[in-house]
């Protein structure tokens, strides 16, 4: 437990510090984390081989070669995001958003085409599940994690960036507390027996409350800015989708018969173990900020 707490404090300090710095240091850090997360996920979804363990097949040997295009395109993707930032600067510009969206779609398309090409020319040695695994890993880790950077570059970006982690982390803490105090009805009994509906509700309420506090802080530091209703909606939606992300990552691990994706962060596991909720929360907050932009 002590090791877990120390690791958590270090990760939290890095997240907050990089958030305030923003720009290229944040992009580089997120890129490195996304690449590690991609390799962790690819090793599970498209392993080079599988081994029998008690009658069940488990991934072994790291990612298959078919995951290589995703790794290379992930590097290119983040390099492109830094180029777009250099072109437009840290502003909430329509051109910057459009360019980032175009770049993301183009790289996802390129990854699909190249990966499918490898599959075709190595058929039947490689099976289709490895192809879909590699493609899913690219979208799951590098693309979804990039929304940390893209959110930071929005108007009120530092507050929205912090909201991503608030919705994920505060939800976990409040869900645990509410579940221990009031939990009776299982949320996902097969997938995560300890999670309860009462805990999930507590997590949403906690996320909503802290999101409102951040909105009040923004009003204090930037008088005349009223984003309380917007941040309340973001807090609720971010918490709900974050809990879904947590369960999704657990489902993949259960299917693969593994406990953690990695051991990079002592007491927490790998990047995918620590940022499973964040990966789902980040794009939701990013796009909600556009849907509710008129009220910000």
Give a short synopsis of this structure:
With 296 residues, the protein is mostly helical. The chain has helices spanning 2-21, 23-45, 68-88, 94-121, 128-145, 147-152, 157-182, 197-221, 228-256, 271-274, 276-291; strands spanning 47-53, 56-63, 186-188, 192-196.
Keyword list:
about 300 residues; mainly alpha; two-stranded antiparallel ribbon; 11 helices; globular
How far is the N terminus from the C terminus? 40 Å
Order the strands across the largest sheet as they lie in space. Answer: 1-2
The poorly predicted ranges are none
So what's the overall shape? globular
> SS-based structural class?
mainly alpha
Proportion of beta-strand residues: 5-15%
* H-E string: HHEEHHHHHEEHHHH
Rg is 20 Å
Please, how many helices? 11
**Rounded mean pLDDT score:** 88
Largest sheet: 2 strands, antiparallel
- The count of strands amounts to 4
The portion of residues assigned to helices is over 70%
Can you walk through the features of this model?
The chain is mainly α. The chain is 73% helix and 8% strand. The chain contains 11 helices and 4 strands. The strands form 2 sheets. It has a two-stranded antiparallel sheet with strand order 1-2. A hairpin with a 2-residue loop joins strand 1 (47-53) and strand 2 (56-63). Helix 7 packs antiparallel against helix 8 (197-221) and helix 8 (197-221) crosses helix 9. The longest helix has 29 residues, at 228-256.
């Amino acid at each position: 437990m002590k090791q877990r707490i120390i690791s958590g404090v270090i990760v939290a300090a890095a997240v907050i510090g990089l958030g305030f710095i923003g720009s290229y240091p944040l992009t580089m850090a997120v890129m490195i984390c996304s690449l590690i997360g991609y390799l962790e996920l690819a090793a599970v979804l498209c392993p080079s081989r599988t081994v029998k363990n008690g009658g069940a097949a488990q991934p072994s040997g790291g990612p298959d070669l078919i995951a290589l295009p995703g790794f290379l395109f992930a590097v290119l993707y983040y390099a492109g995001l830094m180029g777009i930032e250099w072109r437009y600067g840290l502003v909430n510009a329509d051109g910057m958003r459009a360019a980032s969206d175009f770049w993301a779609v183009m790289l996802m398309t390129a990854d699909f085409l190249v990966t499918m090409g490898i599959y075709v020319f190595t058929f039947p040695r490689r099976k289709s599940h490895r192809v879909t695994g590699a493609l899913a890993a690219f979208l799951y880790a590098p693309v979804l994690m990039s929304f940390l950077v893209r959110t930071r570059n929005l108007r009120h970006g530092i507050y929205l960036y912090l909201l991503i982690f608030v919705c994920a982390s505060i939800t976990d803490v409040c869900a645990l507390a509410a579940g221990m105090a009031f939990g009776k009805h299982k949320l996902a009994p097969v997938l995560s027996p300890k999670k309860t509906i009462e805990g999930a509700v507590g997590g949403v309420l906690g996320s909503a409350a802290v999101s409102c506090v951040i909105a009040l802080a923004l009003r204090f530091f930037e008088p005349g800015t009223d984003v309380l209703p917007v941040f309340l909606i973001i807090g609720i939606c971010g918490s709900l989708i974050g809990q879904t992300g947590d369960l999704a990552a657990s489902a993949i691990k259960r299917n693969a018969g593994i406990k953690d994706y990695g051991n990079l962060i002592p007491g927490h596991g790998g990047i995918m173990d620590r940022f499973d909720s964040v990966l789902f929360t980040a794009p939701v907050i990013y796009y909600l900020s556009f849907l509710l932009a008129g009220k910000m």
